[in-house]
Amino acid sequence: MMWYWSSGVHWWGFLFGFLLTVAFWGVLVWVVLALVGSYRSHREPPATRRDDDPAQILARRFAAGEIDEAEFRDRLAQLHEAGLADGDRGRNPSGTGSSPRWR
Description:
disordered C terminus; 55% helix; mainly alpha
């Protein structure tokens, strides 16, 4: 009885194995990158608010050490004069009438 084992794996078998290996590692890398991207996009953004009051922004800069006390007081006084500080919201800078302060 004679057994025929052929001549082994042909070129297409090696090519199929190579492509399958590349596809496996490509999918694995894609999954890892997708998970990392998903994790990064679901983290909370830094605490920055665009609608902060100018006086609060100024106080935050003073607390962070970006400006000194003299500059803080000077700028806060300018904000109060312009009617843009905490207690001055909605008040007309000229102090008369009900026109918007942006005019």
